Fold VOC family protein.
Amino acid sequence: MDLKLEVLFVPVSDVDRAKAFYESLGFRVDIDYIASEDFRVAQLTPPGSEASIMIGKSITGAAPGSLQNQLFAVTDVLATRADLAEKGVDVSEVFHYADGFIFHLDNQYRVAGPHPERADYQSFASFSDPDGNSWLLQEINVRAPGR
């Protein structure tokens, strides 16, 4: 059985603002369908991804900004971070975790800079969309076995 992640619903308060933000990051607009004043759906695909995000009006009951810590795999976290910053995105400095690959919401284990050995899955940067939905960049060049 194959189960491929196809679409992730991203709750936003202003579809046009969110669409412009994601387009500025290089996302491709696959669909922008407006059925009425109360229903709109826009599907956007990140560069190099097979999965997409969906934003819209009346497509999810989740509160705008409630999607947290979703990952984008990147091959060079420093270069991707610099590219996002150049595009005007408020992106964190690159960091890694002191005790290895562990997520801590309070950030107390974050250490500045990429992982000292640039080990896969260990270096991150973070940013949010205009509603506060948060994203992590995670550097991966060689995937773990089975991935």
